[in-house]
Design brief:
The protein is mainly alpha-helical and about 325 residues long. It is about 75% helix and about 5% strand. Helix 6 runs antiparallel to helix 8.
Length: about 325
């Protein structure tokens, strides 16, 4: 951060300035979405944490995903809600770099965690006899730890390079948070090295993760189609539909936004895509993963009954 050339102390978040009359309704809408997101993901996190029979690889990964979604949303939405409510759109340079680093880090963590979840489903369906050996608690913990570690180490180079760019023109970020591409667009420095680093990183990490998930699902679908009974096929596929839905939405929006040249940017379209993976996915994940999950619903119901009986005794 110390290599920054212009001694800039703050940026201005433009947000949705073309809809000034909608600022308060947007504040109410996103506040409700944020509260529902926190409630849903916290419920998953707590229920899995306190029910030992749910401490299996699938649920451990889901617990990590819930905590990740809470962190991911909380990196962006509280500041955005503050901007909508107070119209104070300034953010410090350090605050902007920190928000960008956390955003990219958590996005990388989600890529890797979704890959680990795909591998878990691949072993469970394609090699069920080896599942206990390959997906034991130690290996599961290693997968989760690797996702978090790589996710938080990988973006350091991006942030260092961006922090050294010159911002000699406008300091208004045409977005509702400090994202990589809007910052590159503001710079009057040569951003070629940063863009190349983003593309290489996208190919090595993001695209390879997507290939791993795609390969896993090719094998999974092939195995499911070879199951003779329709009930068996339906049961096997139902364990994957939730994860596959989240993968398609998350990877689709991320790739549309970041794996393309900055010369074809569309700020309004980028804001829409950002809303999909920052707001919509963390909001939907608790519902996607639990609506058809009888085991989780049973644990949630039993936990609720325990609390009801506890308060009735008091």
């Amino acid at each position: 951060m110390t290599g920054f050339q212009n001694n800039i102390t703050k940026f201005t978040i433009q947000g949705f300035s073309n809809a000034l009359h909608l600022q308060f309704p947007l504040f109410i809408l996103f506040l409700l979405i944020y509260m529902i997101t926190l409630l849903g993901n916290l419920t998953i996190f707590i229920v899995i944490s306190i029910n030992s029979h749910l401490h299996t690889p699938m649920y451990i990964f889901l617990l990590n995903l819930s905590f990740l979604d809470i962190s991911f949303t909380s990196t962006i939405l509280p500041n955005f809600l503050h901007v909508l409510f107070t119209q104070q759109k300034n953010i410090s340079f350090i605050g902007c770099m920190t928000q960008m680093y956390l955003f990219v880090s958590l996005a990388m963590c989600e890529f890797l965690l979704l890959s680990a979840m795909a591998y878990d489903r691949y072993i469970a369906i394609c090699h069920p006899l080896y599942y206990i050996v390959r997906m034991n608690q130690k290996n599961c913990a290693c997968f989760a730890a690797a996702a978090w570690s790589i996710g938080f180490l990988d973006p350091i180079g991006h942030v260092v390079l961006i922090s050294k760019l010159s911002f000699c023109a406008s300091h208004v970020i045409d977005h509702f948070f400090c994202d990589v591409i809007p910052l590159l667009k503001l710079s009057c420095s040569d951003t070629f090295n940063v863009e190349i680093m983003i593309y290489i990183d996208g190919l090595l990490l993001t695209f390879n993760s997507f290939l791993l998930i795609s390969a896993s699902y090719v094998c999974i679908i092939s195995t499911i189609l070879n199951i003779q009974s329709s009930e068996g096929r339906s049961k096997a596929f139902s364990t994957c539909t939730s994860h596959l839905t989240c993968v398609l939405i998350f990877y689709g929006t991320i790739m549309c936004m970041y794996l393309r040249p900055t010369s074809i940017l569309s700020p309004e379209r980028d804001k829409f895509f950002s809303l999909l993976y920052i707001v919509l996915i963390p909001l939907l994940n608790p519902f996607i993963y639990t609506l058809r999950n009888i085991e989780f619903q049973t644990a949630l119901r039993n936990q609720g009954l325990k609390y009801i009986s506890y308060f009735q005794k008091d």
